[in-house]
Amino acid sequence: MTTQYKGTVWITGASSGLGFSLVEKYLIKGWKVIASSRSKGALEPLLNSDDGLHSEQGALSFVAFDIANEQSVDAVRNALQQESATLDIAILNAGTCEYLDIDEPDWTMMSKMNHINYIGLVNSVEVCLPMLKKADNPLLVGVSSQAVNAAFPKAEAYGASKAAIRYFLSSLRMDLKQFNIDVSCILPGFVDTPLTKKNDFSMPFLMSSEVAANRILGALERRPFEYAFPKRLSVMLWLARAFPKTWLRLNATKPNPT
Ligand SMILES: NC(=O)c1ccc[n+]([C@@H]2O[C@H](COP(=O)([O-])OP(=O)(O)OC[C@H]3O[C@@H](n4cnc5c(N)ncnc54)[C@H](OP(=O)(O)O)[C@@H]3O)[C@@H](O)[C@H]2O)c1
């Protein structure tokens, strides 16, 4: 018997946090999910499960992908094509975050963050574009960050890589319209994941990855150009842009006491 799926979605950064929650939500909604990351991580139990929802029906499969490795693009596309000829949705979510320590700056981190987050997303587009082009009503989604809406201390590398993603996607939208491919840019606020666990500053309106994934799924039904959430954080960062000197006074890095 052939299983009828609502569609096929490729999700990168699927082994933990937001990506993993997106995998779970799409499976529950009856999608075929191709999950990618370097490790299987939290996906392992789902891939081994025999509850009929996941691997047994082929609903969930895993294709290893280091997004920073340009050399692997063709091989990863071939592996995806073994799972499905076309992709209805690609959610390019994989990413990482490191902060600049201005007292002992590691400037190589700027190119490292840029290479993983931004060039990694570009590599992911190169992987999936031919498969999206074959779908009837495809959607390409990239994950940026609300960090691009106001300056945050120590976020020179992370913020710049996420701003590059936002611009890249806005330009790509213009070029992919002719192929009927929609492009959405997601700008999450603070989400409780392994990525934010290491943060030692206050994270206003922090939400769980399950809640964040639900919000994203709901928003993607409308195929927005951009979706920034939660709105309360968007308003706070709008105020930061309207009153930049106040934002600087409140958030500037304090001198190191040592
Ligand atoms: N959490 C937040 O507050 C927040 C806010 C705004 C935006 N975001 C963005 O949301 C996305 C997901 O973040 P998260 O919070 O869910 O973080 P996370 O739990 O650390 O998950 C990051 C995911 O990316 C994968 N990844 C990292 N480097 C990779 C590489 N070189 N190649 C392939 N996969 C790689 C990781 O898997 P492997 O290590 O197994 O490869 C993991 O699955 C990121 O793009 C992040 O910047 C997060």
Automatic annotation (TrEMBL):
Keyword Membrane attributed: no
Superkingdom of origin: Bacteria
InterPro entries documented for this protein: NAD(P)-bd_dom_sf, Sc_DH/Rdtase_CS, SDR_fam
Pfam families referenced in this protein's UniProt entry, alphabetically: adh_short
CC terms in the record's Gene Ontology section: membrane
Gene3D superfamilies: NAD(P)-binding Rossmann-like Domain (3.40.50.720)
Name of this chain's protein: Short-chain dehydrogenase/reductase SDR
The species this protein was found in: Marinomonas mediterranea (strain ATCC 700492 / JCM 21426 / NBRC 103028 / MMB-1)
